[in-house]
Design brief:
single chain; alpha+beta; Immunoglobulin-like; three-stranded antiparallel β-sheet; elongated
């Protein structure tokens, strides 16, 4: 016996979309959002003479749910966005605000001072101030010339000096 639903013909597509959303949430979303086609979270990095400024969009993420680390020239953002607790999953008809755990690593162009990094979070925007390590200034090394300097034979290793004696030992 066939089962028919009364109501809109589009209702079946809403059910299909809900099921696809549920299925896509199970896919590992560590680097890219399944529908965004770009890295998540979106960020910009700016450079000044003294620092890099990284600004990342993290709507709905609280500072306590965010972990920032720096190792081997790569900055890693790891965070969790919790689902809405007051809405049961079967009540959703459309779910575009992703929740779960994400991680994104960004290679930094230069070395930064670990001890001077500052982070601020307000209105869903994370701002990271990454101070640059000062560039080393070239230093001229002077050469001291000593009177009565050693000759090449006095400085040469013993096996080279012995080979100059005619070969018979």
């Amino acid at each position: 016996m066939a089962v028919f639903r009364w109501g809109s013909a589009l209702e079946a597509f809403r059910d299909l979309e809900r099921e696809m959303d549920r299925w896509l949430r199970r896919i590992d979303q560590s680097s890219y959002g399944p529908r965004l086609g770009r890295p998540f979270p979106a960020l910009n990095m700016y450079e000044s003479e003294t620092e890099y400024l990284l600004v990342a969009e993290l709507p709905g993420v609280q500072a306590e749910d965010l972990e920032i680390s720096l190792a081997n020239g790569a900055l890693t953002l790891k965070f969790t966005r919790a689902p809405q607790p007051h809405v049961a999953e079967e009540k959703y008809r459309r779910s575009e605000r992703l929740h779960g755990t994400w991680e994104r690593s960004i290679a930094l162009p230069d070395r930064v001072r670990d001890d001077g990094i500052q982070a601020e979070m307000a209105n869903g925007l994370l701002k990271l101030h990454l101070p640059k390590v000062p560039t080393a200034q070239p230093r001229k090394i002077s050469i001291l010339e000593q009177p009565g300097a050693a000759t090449a034979a006095q400085v040469a290793p013993p096996h080279e000096v012995a080979s100059d004696n005619g070969g018979d030992s």
